[in-house]
User: Fold these one by one.
Assistant:
Number 1:
Amino acid sequence: MIEVPIQPSDMTDRVRGALYGMFIADSLAMPSHWYYSGREGVRRAYGTIDGYVKPQTKLPGSIMSKSSTGGGGRGSFKGDVIGNIIFHGKKKFWARGADYHYHHLLDKGENTLEIHLTRRVLDTIAKSKGSFVPTAIRDDYIHFMTTAGTHNDTYCGTCHRMFFANLMSGMDPKECPDNDNHNVDTCDSIITTIPIALMSSDDQKTNADVTTMVGITRKSVTSERYAVLYASMLRDVVLRGMDVREAVSKNAAAIGYNVAANARGQDPVTA
C-alpha cells in the first residue's frame, strides 16, 4: 500500500476535528454517565440518545451519595474539600441518600469537569506560545478548581479530591498528586493528555510530556502507561492517517491484548 503524506493544512484540520469530536462526544455521553443498570437503564431514562440531552436530576444508586467529601473514594460526608475548597456550594448534592445525577446541574450540550480541565490545558499551552509548561498547567488547575463559578458540574473524581485534601493540609502542590489504589488508576486520567498527544511531531517527547501531564493531578504509573498507549493510537490515526482498527490492534499488541479474541459479547457501558 502506498502511503500518501498528510499535508500541513490537512493535519491542522484533523487535529482540530479530533478536539472538537472530544468536546461533542463528552456532551453527548454526559447524561448516560455511570448507570449501573447498563444500557437498559439509559434507555429507560432517555429513550434513544441521538442529540444533546439534559441529564435527569436524580440517579438511584448514585455513587456520589456514598463518596467522601473530604478525600478520595467512598467515605464520610463530614469533609469540606467538596463545598468549601472546590465545587463551592455543591456539597449538598453529595448528601447520603440524596442520589443526585453526577451532572444534573449541566444543561444539554454542556461539558463535564474533565473536558473543562482539558480546555484549560489548551488555553495554557496557547498562552505559553505552544509549549507544554507543567508548572503553568498546575497553577491554572489549582486556580480554576478553587475559584467559585468556573464550571457547573457536580461530580468530582477521587484524584481531584485527594489532590485538594493534600493541598489543604499544607503540602507543596508538586507533592499533592495521590492514589487510593482503586479510583485513581482510571481512564479519566487520559482526557487532559489528548491535546499533549497531538501537539508534537516527536514521539519520544510526546510520551514524556503525556506522562508528566498525568502526574500533575494523580500519582499513577498505571495511568501513565495507558496514556502513552492512547497517545500512540491517536497519533497513528490523526497524524499518520492509519485506519482506526489497525491502530487499535497495533497498540493492543504492545501490551499483549488480542482485540479479536476479547471484543465479543462485551457491554460497552462501563464506569
Number 2:
Amino acid sequence: MEASCLETDTLNNTPSSPSARLIGHDGPIHAVTFSHDGKYCITGGHDRTVRLWNPTRIDPAYTASKAVSTSLTNVMTSSLDQTPHALPIQTYLDGHTHPVSAIDIDDNSSTLASSSDKTLVVTDVITQKLKRRFAGHAGRINSVACSSGSEVFVSGSYDGTVRLWDGRSFNMQPIQILSEAKDSISCVDVRQNGCDMAEIVTTSVDGNLRTYDLRLGQIRQDNLGKDVVLNCVASTSDGLCNVVSSLDGDIHILECSTGNSLKNFRGKHSAGRYSLQCNITADDNFIICGSENGDAVIYDFTTGQVVTTLQGHTRPTCSIACHPKSCFSSILITGSYDGRGVVWTNGNPDLVVLK
C-alpha cells in the first residue's frame, strides 16, 4: 500500500474480508491501534508484550502452502485460518510486568505509551528502549493516550482518576489529577487543536461522559442514564459527534459541543460482560463494535442498521482499530481474546500486498 491514497470511489468501502492475521501474541489481545499515518499498527497482549506490525504487507516468512499456490484474492475469501500473516516489525518487552491492557502511539510514531497494571510505560519505538515508567495509580490502568509530540501522557484507571504526566521532564509525579469520576475510568481520548491539547474526553463506569476543556478550565458532564456503564468513546473526523458504547450494548451518538443526544440505538452485537470497544471509520460512514461471541458488527452511522458482521474470531472481540485516512476507510483491525488480530478490507487486492 502506497503512502498516498488509492482511488476508491468505485469500490465498496465496507470492510468485509479477512486479508491478513497478526500472529505472535501468546494469549488474548487486549488492545490494538493504528499509527497516526496508518502505515503501522500496534497491539498489546496478555503475554505482557507490545508488538508493532505492518498490517498491509504479508510476512515473507509465511510459508503455508496455500499462501504460495493461491492468489491473494482467493486467500482473502478463504477461511480465517488460511489467511496469511501480516508482517511483524518489532516486539517491546521492557517495563511490562503485567498484561498490557491499553496502548497508544504518538503522532510522530516515535513513542509508545502502554499500561502494565497500575503503571504507565513509555517506550522508544525505534530503539525499543524503555524511557519512563509512571507509577501512582491505585488500580489497573484501563486506557492511555499521547498528546502531540509526546509532551503529555494521559492515563485512566480503575481507581476512578485520570492522570496527566509530563513527557518532557524527569518529574515522576503527575502534573494534574482529574478525580471527578465516581467509578472506574474506562476510556480516555485526547483531542488536539493544532499542536495544543485542547480537550480530554473520558467515559466512566458511573455512566458519565466528561469533557475537560483545558483552555477554559471547564468540565462538562453528560450523564447517559442511571445504571449505564460506559465502555468507550470515539469521535467523528469532523469533531462534531461522539459515539459512546455501553456495557448493555447500547450505542449513543452525542453532539460534541453540547452533549445533546442525536441518536441512541440497541446494537445487535453480543454484550453484557466485557468492555467492548467501538470505533468510527475515517469517512464517518460506519460504527464498528466488538462482540462477546467473537464477531465485529458494522453499523450504518446514520440509520444504526447493521451493514455486515465480520465473523471468524472464536472468543470475545474487544478491540477495534479503524484506518485513520478516509480513503482507506475500508481497512480495519480486530483484536480478540483468541489471541489473533485480523486485518479486514473490502477485498481490494491493492490494499494488502504480497511484497
Number 3:
Amino acid sequence: MPDSSIHTIYIGADHRGFDLKEQLKAWLSGLGYIVQDCGALEKDPADDFPPISFHVAQSVVADGPESLGIMICGSGAGVVVAANKVKGALATLCLDTEMAKAARHDDHINVVCVASNFQSLPEVQEIIQAVISTEPGIDERYQRRVTEIAMYERQPGN
C-alpha cells in the first residue's frame, strides 16, 4: 500500500482527457493505489463531462478522507464547476505543484482537476504526487473555512 493517507482514487475524464486518464490509471495502479474509473469508459467525442464529474465527486464524498478524486477535461475548468456542485466536494484546478500543495493543505481539496490541453503527463503526475503527499492543514483557520463551506451547503436551497 502507498505511504499516504489516500488509498482509493476515483478518476474520470471526458473525451479530451481520456488518453491522459488511461495513462494515469496505469501509473497510479502501479504505485499501489486502488483506482476506480468513473468514466468515460471509451473515447467518445460526443460525451459530456458533468455526469462523470458528479460521479467522481459523489464517490469521493461517500468514501471519505482516505480517497481522492481526479477529473480531467481539456481546460480543467468545466470539471471544477461540475464537481463542486456535489455537497462535500472540494475541487479545484491545479496548474503546478505549489498550487496543488496549497489547495490540499489550506483548502482540504478532495478532487484535483487538471487540463489535458495544457498539461503534460509528467506535469500532472507531479501535481497528483503533491496532492497525495500533502495532508490537510489542522490549523484552526483552515478548519474554520472548510466548516463555513459545509455549513453553507447545508442551508436550505443550497
